[in-house]
Amino acid sequence: MTPAISIIIPMYNMEKYVGECLDSLLAQTFKDFEVIVIDDYSSDKSCDVVKKYIPAFQKNGINLRLIESKKNSGFPGIPRNKGIELALGKYLCFVDSDDAITNTALEELFNVAEEFDADVVHCEKYFLVDDADFTTDKNLLKEPRAAFNTVFVTEPTFMSEDVGERLDHFIAGKFDWSTCNNFIRRDLIKDYNLKIPPLKICEDSIFSIYLLSLAENFLCVPNVYRRRLGSLSRVTSTSIESEIVRWGSLFFQGFALLEKFFSEHELCENQNEKKLAIFRFYMNWRLQLITDYYSKAPLEIMDILVRQEIEKVDDKVTLAAFFFDYTNLLKDDATKLQVVNKVLTDILQQVKVDSQKMSDELSQLQEKNDELIKMVKKQRAFMNYQRVQVQNLKSVLESESNLQDNQINGGE
Question: Per mean pLDDT, which of 113-122, 220-229, 315-324 is the most reliable?
Fold first, then answer.
């Protein structure tokens, strides 16, 4: 019988974790699902671990398939795409082999997808726990967290039907683009022949743009069903040169994939600014990573490596056109800054003129104040002189008066 859900698990050297991942699936309260493990040519005993779980799944009426690749692809998207090809379920759910999901996750996601007829059910949050604290019981897990500046919904909420508004939400950093956070109707993938991009890391950011652009009913839910043990993307190269090649390749390939997607599906035809905003977001994000390494090696070496990556892009004309538009925007921004700078300069100049004027007025007031002080001093000196004169005159008059009195008294 066709299962309701297909769980797709890419795996590469996850002997330590894949057992816990499968345990969390066996513990599900919802049982109508299949599990497809796509091994990307592991060199450890990951496949042996998976094979030991097959009887336990069969006992629960669940089909567990292990697909062993004959060589390593080096891209997490390739085994996921293989799983998509083999999936039979109405819905697809991606789980990394170093992750586990809470025991009610599938039941909650399936029920809400059916109730709201959703093409995509997006969980904004996940649990992050250490290996020693393994559990799928939500009551024992710590406070959930989100990878980005997400504004959490408190109940199932549809995103806007407008693609431009959805992309704005993405650009604003309010969307966790992890592939494992999306519960997807398989017909959406099938109808548009969607594939996860063949990038070594961060392929889920572009795939999320695909889903946001094409899903008719995109539902965000407050459910938290995923817990994370590690990350397949936390891989660093051993040299600066290999890092610049890695990030440079991701940038140019990602750009080409986005351009191809928007062109094929005739999206943003009347909203070029939205399309450009996505490119600018992707460009700035990638270039920040590239420049971290670009400054650590001789410029001529970095230039050669970047040029080599540009040569790998098929549509160089479109790439050049975008850079032209992008640099023009930067130029426009620079012009705006020049205008602002001119206004600020004029204001500063006026402030200087006003300041000089005030300084001159202050000097004039100071001079007048000095003159007043001098006049006051002169006036005080003159008044003191008059006081002395009056005192002298008073003394003379008193002397004459006494003399006259003596003469009168003597005449008597």
Answer: 113-122
Decide: pTM greater than 0.85: no
Domain boundary among 314, 332, 361: 314
Distance of CA 315 to the CA centre of its chain: 28
Show the tokens assigned to 94: 């991606």
Instruction: Count Cβ neighbours within 10 Å for each residue of 89-105 and write b for 16 or more, e otherwise.
Output: bbbbbbbbbbbbbbbbb
Instruction: Characterise 74 by phi-psi region: left (phi > 0), alpha (psi -120 to 50), beta (else).
Output: left
pLDDT tens per residue, range 240-270:
777 767 666 777 778 778 888 888 887 756 6
* Phi, psi of 118, rounded to the nearest 5 degrees: -85, 140
Strand pairing partners for 186? Answer: none
Distance CA 64, CA 54 (A): 6
Mention every residue, 6+ apart, whose C-beta is less than 8 A from residue 385: none
Give the domain range for residue 98.
Answer: 5-228
Phi/psi of residue 134, each to 5°?
A: -60, 130
Percentage above 70 pLDDT, the chain: 69
**Residue of 108, 128, 100, 106 lying closest to 22 (CA atoms):** 100
Start-to-end CA span in the chain (Å): 161
Do residues 45 and 115 share a domain? yes
